[in-house]
Amino acid sequence: MAEMGSGDDAGTPTDDDALIPLKRSVRDVETMRSVLRDWLGPRVAPGSTIELSPITLPEGTGVANETVMFDATWTRHGTDHTEGFVARIASDDPLYYEADIEIHHDMYAALADVEGVPVPRVYGYEPDAGLLGAPFFVMGRIEGQVPGDNPHWNTSGFVVDASPDDRRRMWENAVDALAALHQVDASRLAFLKPPAGVSGFEDHLAYWRRYLSAAAGPSTHDTLEAGYEWLTAHLPDQAPTGISWGDSRFANIMFRGVEVVALFDWDTVSLAGAGADLAWWRFMDGPSAALVPGIGGPDELVVRWQERTGVELIDLAYYDVFTTFRLGCILMRLYGQLGANGTIPADVAAEQGRNSGPAQALAAQLAELS
After folding, report:
1. CATH class of residue range 29-59+62-140
2. Which of 167, 179, 168, 170 is nearest to 115 (CA)?
3. Domain limits, CATH 3.30.200.20, in the chain
4. Over the chain (370 residues), what is each successive 10-residue block's mean pLDDT?
5. Is 1 helix (H, G, I), strand (E, B) or coil?
6. Of 155, 196, 266, 364, which has the highest C-beta tally within 10 A?
7. How far apart are CA 39 and CA 343, in angstroms?
C-alpha cells in the first residue's frame, strides 16, 4: 500500500512512495518449484505428471503477501494442457495485524459464482508451513493488467496511456464491480461472522483498536487514540453488517482492456459494510480524477454506486474519519517495520509514522467535527 496524503495532493506520489516495500520472494525458487509441482499435481491432473515453468514475480504492486507465478503443463488422454497459476504465500512479517491468508482463499471460493464480481479460481489452501516456510494457497492466473502501486498508476502505465474515454469505461466498470460485491449476502461469509450481538462494523472497529495497540507498542498516538474515541462515541445508529472489501481501489483490480476481470486482496475484508469501502476509495483514488481525465471523482463514485445498488449511502462523513484513522494505524505499523528492518533510521521511521498524511488528515477532521 502506497501512502496517500490529504487534500488536493492526496493522489500524488511523494518521496515516501519509494520506501513502500513490495513483497519479493526470499525462497529458493527451485525448491518452490518442486514443492508447488508436487502439491498442485493431484489437484489439477490426478494420475498425470506435471511440469512447472520457471517461477516469476509480478511487478509494481503487492505489499502484504508474497506472490509467485508459474505455468503448469501436463498430458491427459493424449492431449497436452498448459495453464497459468499464482501462489500467494503468507508473510512472516505481515503488514496487517492478525493476518490470515486462508481468508483470501475463502473469499475467492465464496465469490466464485457471484455475477459481476470476477475472481480467480482457487485450487486449495495449504496450512502446513513446512512445505514453503509459510501457509499458502494457489489460484488460477487470469490474463490482464493491474494498476501499479509503485510507480503509482496515476503517473505512468496502462491507465495513463489509455484514452480518457477508455479510462472512463474502466472506472465505471470498476465501480459497478464494487457495487455488485456489496450486494453479496453476508451469509456466504460465515468465516467473517462477528460475535453474537455485535454488528459487523463494530467487530471490525474492535480489530482496528487491536491494530493500533500493536502498532503503537508501549507508546501512544494521541491523534489516533482521539480518532478511535470519536468513532466509538459516534457509531451510526444502525451499524451495518455487510461485506466490506477493505482495500477497495484501482490497484486491486485487474483489467483486460476496459473490462474488470478480477478483484484481488482481502487483507482487511470484514462485514463492516459498504460505507467503509466507499470512503476508502474516495480517499485513495478519488484525487486521481484531477490528474487523469476520465477517472471519476469522490462524489461521482457515490452517485454511480447508489445508482447501481439502489441504496442511499448515509453517514459518509463518519466513514471518512474511519478511513483516515485506519490508514494512520497502517502507516504507523508500516514505518515501524521499516525502522526495525533498517530500511530507514528508526527515529525517522517513528516520526514518519506519527506524522503521516492520514494522521494529519484525521487531526483536521476531528478539529472540524469538534
Report:
1. alpha beta
2. 179
3. 29-59+62-140
4. 33 41 64 95 92 84 75 90 96 92 98 97 97 97 94 96 98 98 96 96 98 91 97 94 97 97 97 98 95 97 97 94 98 94 93 94 95
5. coil
6. 266
7. 35
